[in-house]
Amino acid sequence: MTAAHRGKLAYIYVRQSSVNQVRHHQESTELQYRLVDRAVALGWPHERVHVIDEDLGKSGAGTVERVGFKKLIAEIGLGNAGLVISLDASRLARNNRDWHQLLDLCALFGVIIADGERLYDPCAYHDRLLLGLSGIMSEAELHQIRQRLHQGERQKAARGELRIPLPAGLAHDRSGQIILNPDEQVQARLSLVSSNSASFTVRAP
């Protein structure tokens, strides 16, 4: 870590994969926000530590547009970043395309990457090797998670216990049967939509 690194900004990248995780795994989110203290301990003034958290509730798999990640890439490309901190590689990216784009830019502009345990210099061969392996493992872990979820769904389907999301206006009762949503407001709105649809006519040009 040099004075040149500290002369630039430190960026903390915060991400959770889904809205459900943001709501029910708040400790993980708070742990990521506390990485600001790590940047300060490494020599950055608090006012020069920027948190990027626009991607809370978004997957890092690459199939969803991540505004926060694009912002981070832009700041690195503009030469504003001296340090990028994330809890682990999986927070930054779950696909090798985004991961290696980040590594290449950090190496080009001399940006240090840090996680919760150590610092990495993408320009150094051994650090770049470790970072590359971290990205591969992160992508493979996501594949394994999907496989386990798919296997679980197939087992539920084989037992006849798999529930798929129902269309608006329907719900499951306590016995698992599909019924009309008991909410009177929902029924009223569906009735309104049905009546409007029935009265709609297409006029020939």
Structure write-up:
This protein folds into 2 domains: 139 residues, 3-Layer(aba) Sandwich (Rossmann fold), CATH 3.40.50; 30 residues. Helix 7 packs antiparallel against helix 8. Strands 2-1-3-4-5 form a 5-stranded mixed β-sheet, with helices on both faces. A two-stranded antiparallel ribbon has the order 6-7. The chain is 51% helix and 16% strand. It has 205 residues and is of the alpha/beta class. It contains 9 helices and 7 strands; from the N terminus they run αβαααβαβααββαββα.
**Over the alpha carbons, how many angstroms does the gyration radius reach?**
24 Å
Q: Which fold name corresponds to the CATH topology of the largest domain? A: Rossmann fold
Given helix and strand content, the structural type is: alpha/beta
Mean pLDDT: 81
Q: What fraction strand? A: 15-25%
Quick structural overview:
With 205 residues, this protein is an alpha/beta fold. The protein has helices at 3-6, 19-24, 26-33, 35-41, 67-77, 89-92, 96-109, 125-159, 184-199; strands at 9-16, 49-56, 81-85, 112-114, 119-120, 170-172, 178-180. It has 2 domains: 3-141, Resolvase, N-terminal catalytic domain (Rossmann fold); 170-199.
Keywords:
205 residues; single chain; 51% helix; two-stranded antiparallel sheet; alpha/beta; Rossmann fold
What is the strand and helix layout of this fold?
Elements lengths: L2 H4 L2 E8 L2 H6 L1 H8 L1 H7 L7 E8 L10 H11 L3 E5 L3 H4 L3 H14 L2 E3 L4 E2 L4 H35 L10 E3 L5 E3 L3 H16 L6
Helix pairs in contact: 7-8
